[in-house]
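Why does this matter for the project? Reviewers at the last site visit asked to see concrete outputs rather than summary tables. In response, this paragraph embeds two records directly. Each consists of the residue sequence and, immediately after it, the corresponding structure tokens. Nothing has been edited or filtered.
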Amino acid sequence: MLIRGCTIAVQLYLGKKHVAADYANADPPYGLFDVPGVRLADMSPDLLTASSCLPGKPPRDPADRILPATARDLGATLITRDRALLDYGGQGHIGVVAC
């Protein structure tokens, strides 16, 4: 699962020099959506509302709240290095895998 804004982060992480300024129309990096099971996750108003009502002690950063809300909605596991998300996963509210 990817959220559109995360494709920008992946591009930056992979060292892509030019990142599209038009985030709404940014292309996913390096054929990422050709990988089986990878798809773009919707950010509906309901999902964004859910990100503000997460159980336990969720991360403070709004983006770090949207990711676990999306994972909960999809029943997905997050693969991350983000300490706040790993800590939140440690509370048992989402599945996380450290990378």
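We now turn to the second protein, recorded in exactly the same manner.
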Amino acid sequence: MVKNMKKKYILDPYLILFLTVFFIISVATIYSAQTILKDEYQSLAIKQIFWYIAGIFTIYIITKIKNDSILKITWILYIIGNVFLLFTIILWN
């Protein structure tokens, strides 16, 4: 008899360690480089922190969604990603 068990996602502690070290190094490097950058680039460290938080939130959401649900919308996500890439090429050239 198979019981209905809930899957638990366990993150590798080494992965968490390396990502934390990479986070600290990247934010510290960007922050220390702000002294030689123009005034318009003074908020890069804050933006870097924001993107790390957005990435952690995205990983959390993805781990809560079932794999079947993600596989059903793969083509939609693929098309949306390519449309965003096209917008990037068109708008920044």
